């Protein structure tokens, strides 16, 4: 159990460290870094490499934004097997819709209760 927490911390920390290096050294904007991480997660899932990373690191691989790219491709490939080209479009939205919907709902609730400082 301790090893599971250790590897989740190491892998998640490594992904975050790469993002910080992209901010500080490469001088990429947050939007560029976010987009690049989503694409990296998508490519790794397309190559079949992200699921083993999730099996190894657990939350260390599912919490960072790279997991969103993984979810998009994973859903698209799964539904493409069942429904063809239409499944590619519906699959990526089906898998990620609950997380996006939750973010919208909780963001709205937060906006109702808290005042912006801007």
Q: What's a quick, concise take on this entry?
A:
The protein is mainly α and 118 residues long. Helix content is 84%, strand content 0%.
List the defining traits of the structure above:
118 residues, mainly alpha
Give an overview of the whole structure.
The chain has helices spanning 2-24, 30-46, 50-57, 59-62, 66-83, 85-113. The chain has 118 residues and is mainly alpha-helical. The chain has one domain. The longest helix has 29 residues, at 85-113. The model has no long low-confidence stretch (mean pLDDT 86). It comes from Bacillus aquiflavi.
Number of extended strands: 0
Outline: globular
Going by helix content, strand content and strand pairing, the class is: mainly alpha
Termini Cα gap: 44 Å
Question: Biggest sheet, open or closed, and with what strands and sense?
Answer: none
Oligomer: single chain
Task: Give me the strand/helix succession.
Answer: HHHHHH
Pfam families: SpoVAC_SpoVAEB (PF03862)
Protein name: Stage V sporulation protein AE
Keywords: Membrane, Transmembrane, Transmembrane helix
List the SSEs and their pairings.
Blueprint lengths: L1 H23 L5 H17 L3 H8 L1 H4 L3 H18 L1 H29 L5
Helix pairs in contact: 2-5, 5-6
